[in-house]
Amino acid sequence: MQNNGKPSPPRQVLDVVVIGEALTDIVTTPEGTTEHPGGSPANVAYGLARLGVSTGLVTAIGGDRCGAALETHLAGAGVALLPGYNSLEKTSTATATITLDGSASYSFDITWDVDPHDFAPTPPRVLHTGSIASFLAPGAGKVKEILQQLRDDCTITYDPNIRPALLGTHAEARSAFEELVHLVNVVKLSDEDAEWLYPEKALEETATHILGLGAELAVITKGSSGSLLATPSASLGIPAVKSPVVDTIGAGDSYMSALILGLLTRATDGYAPSVLEQLGGTAGMAAAVTVGRAGANPPTAHELRAQLQRHH
User: pLDDT tens for residues 244-274?
Assistant: First the structure.
């Protein structure tokens, strides 16, 4: 078809592309059942868009009621769902059943596969992946291929967000994790993730080990004890921001979103101690806002700025 000599419109260039699962969290209690949009990578994409970052999500959902709810949720924040996302027969679910005594059991109905995506013409500034998407076949292998394709073109961040019930043996999970660390720049994990992956190591030793595998920055969050940010030349502890805790749902994903925002907006490409302080402080503040209200409800850019100014 002729285009009358007019150039084709440029493909959208996104600051961040997130690759990973979007699913429905189902919570069943004696009072009834509720459903919420979930999946750690989808939560990170949602948090980034709320912070004003142009964000795309490569994911896989179904053309069902749960998939439609996820589409509405993500689009409402401004996340661009990238082509091929509507590829599953049914949307994946994670179910938590909570009994009268407060104990919880979990079950998962998750399929993870992803259509190959050609990022070569327009690589993002940051590519983020993690969670189930980096471990569960067949999609995990395709995620690894995308990381290999883009490792020289953008900053790659990774949060394993360990879910032991879905990971096979400990040795297999640790091997899969370490194979991805070789391909990424920044690794963020919780203290629970670190202790599960490396029960024989102190957190500082785990950070050093991750840097030895090739990462430039290792971040370990420690809940109310703050976070540890380590590079080959510096290690910095960032205290947590004191905040009333309604619940901790989504706090780690909110931290990750704000950490990526910090990577995009830092004054220099390096990881000087002043940069680490800014990265950890911004991310910790986002997590503090999130735990102060119910559910996975990360801050907007305005809310985060206001809280950072208040605490300076």
Answer: 887 777 889 999 999 999 999 997 778 999 9
Q: Which among 208, 214, 143, 212 has a CA at the least distance from the CA of 181?
A: 214
Number of residues that this document lists for the chain: 312
Q: Domains, the chain, ranges and CATH? A: 16-303 (3.40.1190.20)
**Alpha carbon distance 292, 73 (integer Å):** 21
Which strands sit side by side in the sheet containing 32-38, from one edge to the other? 32-38, 23-29, 93-98, 104-109
Q: What is the pTM of this model?
A: 0.92
**The two three-digit tokens of residue 210, written as one number:** 């991750």
Q: What is the pLDDT of residues 137-180, one digit of tens each?
A: 999 999 999 999 999 999 999 999 998 888 889 999 999 999 99
Burial level of 116, CB count in 10 A (0-12/13-18/19+)? exposed
Of the candidates 206, 185, 211, the one whose C-alpha atom is nearest the C-alpha of residue 196 is 206
Residue 98 corresponds to which tokens in the numbers above? 């909570």
List CB contacts of 15: < 8 A, sequence separation 6 or more. 53, 54, 55, 124, 125, 126, 264
Residue with tokens 């679910």: 93
Average pLDDT on 182-190 reads 97
Per-residue pLDDT tens digits for 117-131: 778 788 999 999 999
